[in-house]
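Changelog note: in this version the structure field was regenerated for every chain. One regenerated record is shown below for reference.
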Amino acid sequence: MDMARSIIIPAFNEEGRIGTTLASIERYFAQQPQDKAEVIVVCDGCRDRTEGTVKAFSQRLPLRLVSYKRNRGKGYAVRRGVAVSTGRVLAFMDADGATPVSEFGRLSRPILSGRADIVVGSRRARGAKVRQQQSLLRQVLGRGFAWHAQLVLGLKIRDTQCGFKVFDGELARDLFRDLSCNGFAFDLEILARARQRGLRVLEQGVEWHERPGSSVHPFRDGLRMLSAVWRIRADLSTNKRGAGLCPPPGNPATSPLIASLPQ
């Protein structure tokens, strides 16, 4: 059955944080019972009790679980979720709920009104409410990375890495089909591909809270993402999928490792 809204949550060893996020989503949907919705949690090679925590919500949420054994990266996980989604409007958010799900409705409006194809949640755009700042080191590295991405890929987005983005659903399912970056740089590839297609991308400030326990290493992953920026630029210029940092994926839509939890 087609849904009005889809929320995709990539998760890697998130047993300590995802329960709180799912509970907040349950409260959010309870306030809007008229809309059909689905929550798709993708367990990206989890080795802890994330799956069990998610399954505990199977009678409380319109929930689907996608799970596979090997950790493939955030970009791969989001792509898997997008491939099985049905929502008219689609969002992905981080498992820690750093940007609350309550932002979904506001960020969906430009898409539903026909003013945008993609709405990017941002910690740096007008109206952003950053309740707890990142460390100074992460802030400096983040701004430097954003500047580098803007320069190399021609992006106008000030905060490419905030983990809350909203899409027209059909457009997202088409756009993510060509995604080749499996890791954290996938946001950049999606935005660069959107720019190449001439899609309307709107950046809006969101509420954001720093959460402890991030799996992103500022130096190791930062260096990988800097290299990935140039790989993305090369891939787009030759219309080919990359290798190494952005390895070509399999077809997520045909994988047998997709399970829907009972409603």
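Spot check on this record: The chain has eight helices and ten strands. The chain has a mean pLDDT of 85.
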